[in-house]
Amino acid sequence: MASSPRVVVLAGGVGGSKFTLGVRDALARRNGPEATVVVNTGDDLWLSGVRLQPDVDSILYALAGVNDTERGWGRDGDTERVNAELQQWGAGWPWFTLGDLDLGTHLARTGWLRDGLTPTQIVERLSGRWPLGVRMLPMTDTEVDTHVRVVGGDVLHFQEWWTRHRAQLTPLGFDHPGIEAALPAPGVVEAIADADVVLLAPSNPVVSIGPILAVPGIREALALTSAHVVGVSPIIGGAVVRGMADVCLTAIGVETSAAAVAAHYGTRSEGGLLDAWLIAEEDAHLAAAIDALGMRAVVAPLWMRDVAASAAMADAALAAAAV
After folding, report:
1. CB-based contacts of 288: which residues, under 8 Å, 6+ apart?
2. Cβ distance 106 to 48 under 8 Å?
3. Three-state secondary structure along 19-48?
4. Mean pLDDT of 272-281
């Protein structure tokens, strides 16, 4: 593999944004081409008449250096005057906060959608505001919001289940209405086909990476690419790093362990996705079991405490692809 590989990252959420920062830093030191980041849009929604793309915006803001690192979402230093006014009108969701600067992004996006632009064109336009150092693509231009079926028979939008109920309502499954007819966004399949390395970020396997893989054509592109496909475990020491991914994994019958998530993704030699799988030092004892699946286990520090740590993790993932 060339010292400056062409890299595609599949990502979503806070873990995806941190990892993407590391990939950008690692590739910049190689003077290589910019990575292409295919972003989950399965948790998008309409709220108060505007279209929100939480994962797109989280990664956009992180790359631009304007994200709120304390909360893990939204813009740094944002205010909430408009959100307070919406609450006074009884509009929106009282448990889902829209910051004023963040709302500016949503208004711009919604206006462009109504003008006829596609999500791909809008992401490109949003990306032009700051020097991001990567190329961002939504997974699809089709609206495929995630719905959660919970015990008792109710069906909730993912954001209501995740943000309002903090995943405390037991899920029976996750659906993406309309995804069967969706197409990969322009450039996604081509980027995967042309890549030297495809990296699965340590994002939630079920509701961040899962929707990307569910878009018809993307999993097939991963099977056909000559690139090495390397995943990074979102599980460290048998526990999730952030969020409620363990609840999601349990709902689909997957144990919360680095080895179980590796088996969930599967090895490419047997119709799965992965050539190699990065696991944390705390999970080194699982390496032999992961190797037995037919993929190569690589042990590396996986705590993304800062950009340098994320870049070191990206370096380890790129090294794993150089076999």
Report:
1. 297
2. no
3. HHHHHHHHHHHCCCCCEEEEECCCCCEEEC
4. 98
**Cα separation, 59 vs 227, whole angstroms:** 24
Are the CB atoms for 155 and 125 separated by under 8 Å? Answer: no
**Is 12:204 a contact under the CB 8 Å cutoff?**
yes
Give the closest residue to 208 by CA, choosing from 229, 234, 178, 236: 234
Does 265 map to a domain?
Answer: yes
Residue 103 near residue 166, CB atoms below 8 Å: no
Q: Tokens in use for 92?
A: 């929106």
Q: For residue 243, what pLDDT is reported?
A: 79
Q: Using one digit for the tens of pLDDT, what is the confidence trace for 140-158?
A: 999 999 999 999 999 999 9
Q: 90 burial class (0-12, 13-18, 19+ CB within 10 angstroms)?
A: exposed
Number of structural domains, the chain?
A: 1
- Rounded to whole angstroms, the Cα distance separating 88 from 15 reads 34
Given a cut of 90, whether residue 73 has pLDDT beyond it is: no
| pTM, rounded to two decimals | 0.96
H helix intervals, 65-132: 81-88, 100-114, 119-127
Using an 8 Å Cβ cutoff, are 150 and 156 in contact?
yes
CATH number at residue 182: 3.40.50.10680
Distance CA 304, CA 21 (A): 10
In a domain, 274, yes or no: yes
Q: Which pLDDT does position 323 carry in this prediction?
A: 54
At 239, is the secondary structure helix, strand, or coil? Answer: strand
Contact 55, 9 (CB under 8 A): no
Give the pLDDT confidence of 125-143 residue by residue, as tens digits: 999 999 999 999 999 999 9
- On whether residue 81 sits in a domain, the answer given is no
User: 153, 143, 154, 155: which is closest to 109 by C-alpha?
Assistant: 143
Residue appearing with tokens 């870049």: 311
Residue 182 forms part of a structural domain: yes
Domain that holds residue 283: 7-44+132-143+178-320
